[in-house]
Design a protein that fits this description.
With about 325 residues, this protein is α/β, with parallel strands linked by helices. It is about 40% helix and about 20% strand.
Length: about 325
């Protein structure tokens, strides 16, 4: 599909019924790339209604930028398949996925473009930092804050940072290589993009350590998939199992995934109870098979009164941002 691509980089935005964030993001992208004809914007809208109409009207009337494509799905594909569609319809050598509610930091698009315009690497991982809902307050450290190298050996990536690719803004993908990755076997996992990446990794993975994205991650209401938190998190392990990684690499990747997806961490589980996404139904689905002592603890957490633990949860969230 991309063999005759004329663009080096596509900024691909899978969107769903959050027009205020979408417009803010598109404006910020155009401000950075308005004079670069090798960078395009692709919006794939999964709303299937008129929610984002005023955004597209504003773009047509006010933004003098022609290198933008808008695809409006006639049926709702869901977050995973909509992300996949972004890659399938990209016309560029590289596709940089970004959520509609996130923002590029500084001059990161041009900076990254200059890094990859002559590259053949299958994937780059881009540094990001968590922000509050208005993108004004940032976390104390970025995701790759402690790295002092621009190249990560595959084993180190899997052990320590594989979880970071779950955030789509981290992923700068060689479009053709990803499309040849047997990505369709990951459909419905929420992480098809990660599955494709795992299948095409080289032994050394380039990291862009400059902070590129502000990832809006203040509270549970941030995410459109909050009600499916446990399905989303456990799916990451399913993707690892389905990937073409060796058995040894898969075990390392699972350990790496636990750095974010702390599905067996009791404090994390209490936080999810405070967020009102952990309950008896989730206990039965994911935790009732555990050994008796842990099963009992998981059961008790499912019934903790939220009014007791919620204030501590809010204090913890506020402490994350400077």
């Amino acid at each position: 599909m991309n063999s005759d691509s004329q663009n080096t980089l596509t900024i691909a935005i899978p969107t769903y019924k959050r027009p205020e964030f979408l417009l803010k993001l598109v404006k910020s992208v155009i401000r950075q790339i308005s004079t670069n004809k090798k960078i395009s914007i692709l919006i794939v809208d999964d709303s299937t209604d008129s929610t984002n109409n005023y955004v597209y009207s504003y773009i047509a009337k006010n933004l003098k930028f022609t290198n933008i494509s808008i695809i409006r799905n006639t049926v709702n594909l869901g977050i995973d398949n909509n992300i996949v569609k972004c890659l399938e319809f990209s016309k560029s050598d590289y596709t940089w996925l970004v959520g509609e509610d996130d923002l590029f930091a500084g001059d990161s698009i041009e900076f990254v473009y200059n890094q990859i315009k002559f590259s053949k690497e299958p994937v780059y991982l881009c540094n990001y930092i968590y922000s509050d809902s208005k993108h004004s307050k940032l976390a104390k450290k970025s995701v790759f804050n402690e790295l002092d190298t621009n190249i990560l050996p595959k084993r180190i990536l899997l052990q320590n940072y594989v979880w970071a690719a779950g955030f789509i803004g981290c992923c700068l993908i060689n479009t053709n290589k990803w499309l040849s990755s047997n990505y369709k076997i990951f459909s419905g996992t929420y992480y098809s993009h990660v599955g494709g990446i795992l299948n095409i990794l080289n032994q050394n993975i380039p990291i862009i350590r400059k902070i590129c994205i502000k990832n809006r991650a203040e509270d549970v209401d941030t995410f459109t998939w909050s009600g499916s938190t446990f399905d989303v998190y456990f799916s990451f392990y399913d993707v690892i199992n389905k990937s073409s990684l060796s058995h040894e690499d898969k075990e390392h990747a699972k350990l790496g995934a636990q750095r974010l997806f702390k599905v067996n961490n009791l404090l994390w589980l209490i936080a999810k109870r405070a967020d009102d996404v952990y309950n008896f139904y989730i206990y039965k689905k994911f935790y009732s098979h555990e050994n008796l002592p842990r099963r009992f603890i998981y059961f008790v957490i499912a019934f903790l009164p939220k009014f007791i633990i919620l204030p501590f949860r809010r204090l913890h969230l506020k402490s994350k941002f400077r």
